Amino acid sequence: MQVWMNGSFRDLDAASIPVTDRGFLLGDGFFETMRAHEGKIAWLDAHMERLDFHAEQIEFPLDLLPATKDVAEIVATLFEQVRRKDAVVRLTVSRGSGERGLLPPADPDPTILITVSPFEPVDPGVGLKLFTSQKVRRNANSVAGGIKSINYLDNIAAKQEAHSYRGDDAIILSADGNVAETTAANIFGIKGDTLWTPDEDTGILCGLARGFVLGWAEETGREVDFEPKTPEMLKELDAVFTANALQGLRIVDKVDGLVIGVPAMTFFAELAQMVETSLCEGIVV
């Protein structure tokens, strides 16, 4: 397998970073995870715009980031080794090496890595079992929480917690104890013809799939409810599902051991197919 790193293609075993790299030492960096279908990245422009946003939040120079067309060409080349229709692309940016201490170098020499790995889409109707994390909370004022920071310790801890209960993922609550998101996806609910999802002020990372769903709701005139909900309140919904730009939409079967809703009686399947089609066709969100 090959990767692209700092301007060149390299064998995976030959790619390395210096021991002074701030991403390795301090988690000083960010990333984007993207879906590629037949060599083309879905929603690429939107992903690259969000990469710029991550950079701006930590005062990383935008002119050091790769251009969108270059990323597309790199991924098309790396995709040839996947031998599947779908792949997961990760573009990782570290601020690079610097002197000891917290302050970053004035003129960073970043480490930029692009990897492409096989990915098998999952049927959106295959349900998830979620458990509420008791260890982790979202902080609406956290810089790291508002971007895809390469410091993922909160998400790792919550995922481990859910795994200990034999769950698929964890629900992470806001600071005031309401549902925020999972470790890797936004959460939605359906009640009649109304969509529900946590508001941005809960400290969530607003994903591209979330934007797609909300855009669809606006176009179709569907009401969206942003009122806070505790995990117990989710059982009052007709269906609960997660959304991210890699797996699309996934229905939730259980929350903390309780069966949630009857998704077959809702518009979930239709919406999930629309998202999957968009991811495969690369429609701009």
From TrEMBL:
Molecular function as annotated in GO: 4-amino-4-deoxychorismate lyase activity; branched-chain-amino-acid transaminase activity
Required co-factor?
pyridoxal 5'-phosphate
Please list the GO biological process terms of this entry: 4-aminobenzoate biosynthetic process; branched-chain amino acid biosynthetic process
GO CC annotation terms, alphabetical: cytosol
Reactions that this protein is recorded to catalyse: L-leucine + 2-oxoglutarate = 4-methyl-2-oxopentanoate + L-glutamate; L-isoleucine + 2-oxoglutarate = (S)-3-methyl-2-oxopentanoate + L-glutamate; L-valine + 2-oxoglutarate = 3-methyl-2-oxobutanoate + L-glutamate
Which InterPro entries does the UniProt record give?
Answer: Aminotrans_IV (IPR001544), Aminotrans_IV_CS (IPR018300), Aminotransferase-like (IPR036038), BCAT-like_C (IPR043132), BCAT-like_N (IPR043131), Class-IV_PLP-Dep_Aminotrnsfr (IPR050571)
Named in its record, the pathway it takes part in is: Amino-acid biosynthesis; L-isoleucine biosynthesis; L-isoleucine from 2-oxobutanoate: step 4/4; Amino-acid biosynthesis; L-valine biosynthesis; L-valine from pyruvate: step 4/4; Amino-acid biosynthesis; L-leucine biosynthesis; L-leucine from 3-methyl-2-oxobutanoate: step 4/4
Summarize the protein's role.
Acts on leucine, isoleucine and valine.
**What is the protein's name according to its record?**
Probable branched-chain-amino-acid aminotransferase
Organism listed in the record: Thalassospira profundimaris
